[in-house]
Amino acid sequence: MRCFTVLAALCVPFLIVACSGNEVLSESLNDDGVPTWVGQGSSILKSRQSRVFHGVGSAHMMGDFSLQTSVANRRAREEIARIVTSFMEIVSREYIATGQASYAGFDEQDVAKQIEVLSRMDLSKIEVVGHWSDDGSKVIYAIAQMDIAKVRQAIKEMASVNKGLKAYISVEGDNIFDRIAKKEQ
């Protein structure tokens, strides 16, 4: 009993921290009892509190629950990387359209190079914030999220990203995000 009490005391702070970053993740269920994020899939969402990229991944039954969960987590993180890459392609093209890019030596050919650099994003920094298991099909779903501030920070830390593009995203990134994001209700 004493061992259980110590274990519970150690786990409660972890659970509070693990759940505290979830202010944008909707906990609502559809008529079938499935979380709405499973049906919505990967997305870019804006709420009053934040701007986040959501990636949803899934894995079919593999006989090993831990492996299945790990695969769903990896796929959710890969979805975030895919969405961020698409977002950065939009940012890069808008940067070129401003005319500022030519002064920084950045052109259409550089967009592909920057996208290649971004595709190597460190996926371990992307937080998995939820799971759901379909009891009928035994599919596990995972949802990962990364807010725009973490995206900007990750890009800032990448040495090979064009300095002018870094500056442009720090100034215009939120505005571009707001134009393409779905509003959370």
At the fold tier of CATH, the topology name is Thiol Ester Dehydrase, Chain A
Q: Work out the oligomeric state of the chains in this entry.
A: single chain
Q: Provide a count of the helices.
A: 7
Radius of gyration: 19 Å
- The structural class is alpha+beta
Largest sheet, in brief, is: 5 strands, mixed
What's the β-strand tally? 5
**What's the end-to-end separation, in Å?**
45 Å
| Helix content percent band | 40-55%
Count of the separate structural domains: 1
What percent of residues are in strands? 15-25%
Average the pLDDT over all residues and give the rounded result: 82
Indicate the CATH architecture: Roll
CATH class label: Alpha Beta
Shape: elongated
The H/E string reads HHEEHHHEEHHE
Strand order of the largest sheet: 3-4-2-1-5
Low-confidence parts lasting 5 or more residues at pLDDT below 50?
1-24
Your description of this structure?
With 185 residues, the protein is α+β, with helices and mostly antiparallel strands. It has one domain (24-183): Thiol Ester Dehydrase, Chain A (Roll). Helix content is 55%, strand content 16%. It has helices at residues 2-20, 36-40, 65-98, 100-103, 108-118, 148-157, 163-180; strands spanning 43-46, 51-59, 127-133, 140-147, 182-183. The chain has a five-stranded mixed β-sheet. Helix 3 (65-98) crosses helix 7 and helix 6 packs antiparallel against helix 7.
